[in-house]
Design brief:
Layout (H helix, E strand, L loop, with lengths): L8 H14 L3 H20 L18 H48 L2
Length: 113
């Protein structure tokens, strides 16, 4: 896929490898997202109603009511984790891309293209 998108394949391998390092922490991240989301939903709706593990069965994932009890708090909680991560990534990468573009334009002007 890196070749199709004309990206650096080494950077793609490193990114996939770093992503795999985070995989064992997904249950913890999902629990944090749910805790944050249930507090936010509870703030606007009254008291938070966290779901108990004993109240949840795997076949309930396909019901729309499950979205409102579990999915909505997780969705809202994920915004509180993903928005700061996206802002930090943007702030770190913007100067990198500006420097790359500046170097590319200087190289093209030096070659007389």
């Amino acid at each position: 896929m890196a070749y199709v998108l004309r990206c650096n394949p080494i950077a793609a391998v490193i990114a996939v490898s770093l992503h795999d390092v985070v995989t064992p922490f997904w249950p913890v991240l999902l629990e944090i997202e749910y805790a944050i989301g249930s507090r936010v939903v509870g703030f606007f709706d009254g008291l938070p109603h966290p779901a108990s593990v004993t109240d949840f069965h795997i076949h309930e994932l396909m019901k729309w009511t499950t979205f409102f009890t579990i999915g909505l708090p997780m969705l809202i909680g994920s915004l509180f984790l993903s928005a700061p991560a996206a802002a930090i990534s943007y702030a770190v990468m913007l100067p990198v891309f500006k420097r790359r573009e500046r170097r590319r334009s200087e190289r093209q002007q030096g070659e007389g293209i």
